Amino acid sequence: MQLTPKPTPNRGPARRLPPSPARSRSDAAGFTLIEILVTVAIVAVGLLGLAKLQAAAISETQTSRTRSVITMQAESLANAMRSDRAFWASTTSLPSFTIAAGGTVTYGGAFPAAHAGGCTSPSTACSSGEMARDDVSFWATGFGSQFPTATGSMSCSTASSTGPTTCDLSLTWTENIIAINRSAGAASGSTAAHSNTNYLVLHIQP
User: Fold this and answer.
1) Domain range spanning residue 90?
2) Which residues are bridge partners to 99 per DSSP?
3) Whole-angstrom Cα distance, residue 114 to residue 135?
4) DSSP 8-class letter at 92
5) Residue 26: which pLDDT band, with cuts at 50, 70 and 90?
6) 5 in any annotated domain
7) pLDDT category, 19, cuts 50, 70, 90?
8) pTM above the 0.70 mark?
């Protein structure tokens, strides 16, 4: 008697068992932690850059303000000189002065002695030279109070006996500057805050 083998049932392709819930949760938690660390690192770098930009912006704002105020101070003295042309535009009296830190003035050239009691409310009228000295003294006091470390000088000259007279006002001050990047820091010799000396020369023709 011949035996016929039974056909093997077709089971189809083998299927993988789904991962256990505990393993899935562990893998998801691991990837989430890495993503959080990367995000924190990116945000930290961005905040550091923002803080640097803010410090540089504040420094530039202060620098611009200082230069604007010093320019206005120089222009105010020029206006006072033009209001006293009898002294400043003279070709025979060529005044000069220097300003030390704190606003202390040393007069030279044709400046006369100070009028007794000043020229604000004098008992006797001030001459044009005394008025000029009083104007410079008043201006230097205000300049020194605003910029205690700044210095300056003025010298006047004339091309001929008929004029015109030209005066050069020179002001010097220092500024604290923050380098915004390594290139700017290398150009100034420092990658941190450093002092920079600035000059303003105003040519005045009274």
Assistant:
1) 65-204
2) 105, 152
3) 11
4) S
5) low
6) no
7) low
8) no
* 120 secondary structure, DSSP code: S
In sign, the C-alpha dihedral spanning 76, 78, 80, 83 is negative
Cβ count within 10 A of residue 78: 18
Q: Is 158 helix (H, G, I), strand (E, B) or coil?
A: strand
Mean pLDDT estimate for the chain:
81
Rounded distance, CA 156 to CA 139, Å?
18
Q: Which residue has the tokens 């000295």?
A: 133
In a domain, 175, yes or no: yes
Residue 189 belongs to a domain:
yes
Q: Is the pLDDT of residue 12 over 60?
A: no
166 belongs to a structural domain: yes
> Number of structural domains, the chain?
1
Tell me the three state secondary structure of residue 127. Answer: coil
State mean pLDDT over 26-50: 79
